[in-house]
Every structure is written in structure tokens, then in C-alpha cells.
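Fold it.
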Amino acid sequence: MTIKNKGNTLQGEPRDTMAWVEEKRFIQTRIKQGPVEGKRSWRREDLYDRGYPGKRCR
């Protein structure tokens, strides 16, 4: 691998640029749909209290 093409690879593998094009298209479609109706039933702070594998809860 040369410095010239280093930015185009991820750990020696070529990037799948079509996957990024499809992902961007998906995100744009979701943005156009706007916000969902109703309100969420949780607060951001609630997520911190849930914990995750390897995390010690308070």
C-alpha cells in the first residue's frame, strides 16, 4: 500500500463506495419523511441508567 492510495482503503481492503451511495440515499429518504407522529416515551437520561454489557450500573 502506498501513501497515495492509503485513503481509499480500510485495512488493505477497497471500500465499497456503492454501499455509501445507497446509505446516503436511505438517509435522505428518511429525512424527507419528517418526524414521526406522537412523542417518545423515554428521556435521554433514561438511556444512561440502563447500562450495557461490561458497564457497572450505579
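The beta strands are 9-10, 13-14.
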